[in-house]
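hey m, so remember when u said the tokens were messed up on ur end? i reran from scratch. heres the input so u can diff it against urs
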Amino acid sequence: MGSGEIAPNMVKVHRKILDGLIASFEGNRTLKACFLATPFTFQENVDELSAKIVRYFKVSLNVDIEPTDIIKDFYKVDIASLDQNELIRTVSNSDFVFAGPGSPSFALERWQNGSLPSLLKEKLKSGGAIVFSSAAALTCGKFTVPVYEIYKVGAKPTWLDGMDILSVLDLNTAVIPHFNNAEGGTHDTRFCYLGQNRLNYLKGLIDDDTVILGIDEHTAVIFDIENYTLEVSGLGCLTVQQHSESFVINSGETISIDKIKSPADKTNQIRQHQIKNQDKSKDAIKSDFDLDELIDNFKKHLNEKEFDLAGKTAATMFNIIEPLLSDDESDFGKKLIRELKILILNIFDDYQKLDIASVNKINSLISLIVEIRNKERKQSNFTLSDFIRDELARMKVQINDSPTGTKWDILN
């Protein structure tokens, strides 16, 4: 969304997305929704704005939405290194994730140093929905405009690295909301307060294959991953720019996502397709199983305390994906580690106060992850083993390697 994320005219957009999610559940469960307060958690009115968002979704959409990442006394802590467990847990357990106004650079300082970008991409791939507007929308592309630093502080125009969420659609983009802003009156505040001159300067700093997606205020662009289309809705339009070339998609139009790709993106997509066809043995392995189904079974066994079956399911998953883990382009191993981490976090609120069954469950899961790490280290797959070590560290699990073996401890 370009802006207006909790305005009356955006109810229709939210409802379309929420109804689609609920229909996909086929009556088997209820919707879980959360919003990320990170972009505005530094503001003095953080509680007031959070309550306003909760009220909007409840009154206008009949949806209970849970705020997360409201950082108390943020000026007393190091935001970049602040624990993210509650943030990751809430997002992982939500079908619908919303974020809106605030500072994109402040949000990125927190989000980029954790697993949120990867988690959001996985959520989109698995059928969840993400609605980011205004400041949050700026973070969705490969590049992000630090709008406050440029417009208010006077910093030289530059780009920040974004979360690159739209890469799940094979898009190389920079998202610019407030594209038709006119608040300046006598001076140019279009393009999220950049104006034409600064936008032209920034265009010269990005790759030739980067496409700028300019979203007008009170306007939404809905990306449908399954059908590979985008729909523009609201009061304005979507402007697609690549250096000197530009075209507009008006509200009410639905087009194929291929139409907004750069020539370089399309060429790269063809090249990747050719590479995949050359390695049919790996493709055959991938097509023989459904990792998502195995993970669902794993969760089910754990929830029902069927630990033997859970262990067998986990072993099956790793035996199947083992030939793929050495492939740098494969994300199966990392996805599985994240799923295990989420399961641990859901029962890890206060380790010292857990009942013995929960303690045993956590210990078993951590031991499984450590065992997988050791196996990957022996096979010199350091990309995955280092990833596992870092994920465990974020859960305050300390790994100690020695000539006699590996031990781990949960730090208080």
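this time it looks ok to me. Residues 356-378 form the longest helix (23 residues). if urs says something different then somethings off w ur setup not the seq
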